[in-house]
Amino acid sequence: MSIPNAIKLRIVLLLLLILVIIFLLYLAIIPFGKANYVFIPGQYNSFWGILSPQVRLFEPFGNTQKIKEGPVYINLRTSRPFDRASLKIKYRYPVNSNINIIEAGVLVDSKMWRYELLPLENNFLNRLSKSWSFLIEDGSLFLEKKPEFSSISEFIGSSPDVSKIAFYNYEYNFDYEIPSYEYNSSVKDIDTEIRGPYQFYTYVGEGEDLYFDFFFEDINANNDSDPIDIFLYYKDKLINSTTLEDDGIEEDNNKIGEQRSLSFDFPGMPQGVYKFEVKVNEDIITSRIRRKQSKMSFINKVWIYGDSDGELKMYTDSSDISVLTKNPASLQVIDIDDRELEMNETFKQFNASSESAISVIELKKRDVVMAGNGIFSFIASDLINPSLKKVDINYDLGNEDISYVLAKYTFPQIEDGWKVNTVNIDLTKAYRENQIYSFILSVPGLRMNDEVDDWVEIAEVSVDLEGRSLFQWVKNYLKNN
Question: If exposure means fewest CB atoms within 10 Å of the residue's CB, which of 41, 348, 357, 413 is most exposed?
Answer without folding.
Answer: 357
